[in-house]
Amino acid sequence: MRIVLISTPMGFLGSGKGGGVELTLNSLVSGLLSLGHSVEVIAPKNSKLYVSNEKVKLHFVEGKDQISWQHQNYNSPVIIPDDSLLAGMLEKGLDIAKKADVLLNMSYDWLPIWMTLNVEIPIAHIISMGSESSVINNLISKVYAKRPYNFAFHSKIQAYDYPFVKKPIIIGNGFKLDNYTFQDSVKGPLAWVGRVAPEKGLEDAVFVANELGEKLKVWGVIEDKSYASKIEQSFPQGTIDWMGFLSTYELQKELGKCRVLLNTPKWNEAYGNVIVEALACGVPVIAYKRGGPSEIIQHGQTGFLVDPDDKKNMLSYVEIIEKIKRKKCREWVEKNASTDIFANKVLNWLNKVIHEYK
Ligand code: UDP
Fold first, then answer.
1. How many separate domains does the chain show?
2. What share of the chain is helix, strand, coil (3-state, %, to 5)?
3. d(CA 165, CA 143)
4. CA angle 249, 130, 142 (to 5 degrees)
5. pLDDT-derived band of residue 309, with 50, 70 and 90 as boundaries?
6. Which of 19, 37, 99, 321 is deepest in the core (most CB within 10 A)?
7. Is 277 near ligand 1, meaning CB less than 6 Å away?
8. Which helix (H) or strand (E) element contains residue 92?
9. Which residue has the CA at smallest separation from atom 23 of ligand 1?
10. Is the distance from the beta carbon of residue 19 to the nearest atom of ligand 1 less than 6 Å?
């Protein structure tokens, strides 16, 4: 299959601004290549793919980023800036896709979804968030009524955010296992990984660390500086150990030394890449039962699921985390979330999409 991928219009690949989509795109490219398919990627200038994906043709586009939908009001209108990166990527994508089978859009935004019914080439969308905007929700509903196969979701719970989607296509996500080394460090520190922004609930993990009289190691882009400093000021100095945003290789090396990852989403997390990355290193995860994490974590086997916002319960599970066998965590990823498993699910889906256009 010849596939043209459109990246997120939020920062270049490798910047961390695009959140989980950056890793998902790389995993998908790896899986598609290993299964012998042809892939081209349209991405913002300065983007870098994993070294193992370097064979792929990467087309750069310059322009202004979109505003992230999760940081606007639910009823905000669509804003497309002058010199729009998204419009530029779509223009290039449509041109290159003339010789391809499908254009695969990974940006959560209005314009590519609107184009679905207005161009001849099949445009398939990986929806990477829950319902975060009424204008996008209503547009997906309209397009879905005519082209239900053109949308895929990472988890069932994420798809439930779109009530008109009756039989969601669920593709999960994929992780290149060679990129993660298993470590058996049962006595390590507490970890938290993610974009530092209100929807990720960092404050609850800091609460747990503080109650235990420990430090919390935090990796990720500080997207919202005032939110970050507000949390810092609410707890004793030094409770948060800011580790910065690292490449996957550096991140897994450090994360693997931790005894548990705390995951505290305040929104309907579409999937939760960081959970699987921790598991791949052998690190069990304690997460709120909200969104994707509840479909990934096997309660009592690879970590624990806690009622949303119940910090005290999270704390009590940290105290018994050694009951989880770290090998089981890694095994779950090998059996359920490799790049090949992911790419196969995506290919089955794209075959259905293409078939509908014949
Ligand atoms: N991440 C990273 N380096 C860091 C911290 C995070 O590469 O130091 C990446 C991580 O690998 C993951 C992404 O940031 O792929 C966060 O994705 P997730 O699905 O957890 O949440 P999102 O940001 O998409 O809401």
1. 2
2. 40, 15, 40
3. 11
4. 130
5. very high
6. 19
7. yes
8. helix 85-96
9. 19
10. yes
Asked if 105 and 193 sit in the same domain, the reply is: no
Ligand 1 in contact with 175 (CB < 6 A)? no
The CA 358 to ligand 1 mean position distance, Å, reads 37
Residue range of the domain that includes 127:
2-175+338-356
Which helix (H) or strand (E) segment is 324 a member of? none
For ligand 1, say whether the CB of 246 is within 6 Å of any of its atoms. yes
If asked whether residues 124 and 273 sit together in one domain, one would say no
AA letter at 270: A
Residue 67: predicted pLDDT: 96
Nearest of 287, 292, 274 to residue 324 by alpha carbon: 287
Q: Say yes or no: CB of residue 266 within 6 Å of ligand 1.
A: no
Nearest to 294 by CA among 285, 305, 278: 305
**Ligand 1 centroid from CA 280, angstroms:** 14
Max distance between CA atoms of the chain, in angstroms, equals: 63
Of 174, 119, 133, nearest to 152 by C-alpha is: 174
| pLDDT tens digit sequence for 188-247 | 999 999 999 999 999 999 999 999 999 999 999 999 999 999 999 999 999 999 999 999
Q: Report the atom number in ligand 1 closest to the C-alpha of 21.
A: 24
Q: How many residues are listed for the chain in this entry?
A: 358
Distance between CA atoms of residues 148 and 292, nearest Å: 22
For the CA of 128, the closest atom of ligand 1 is: 24
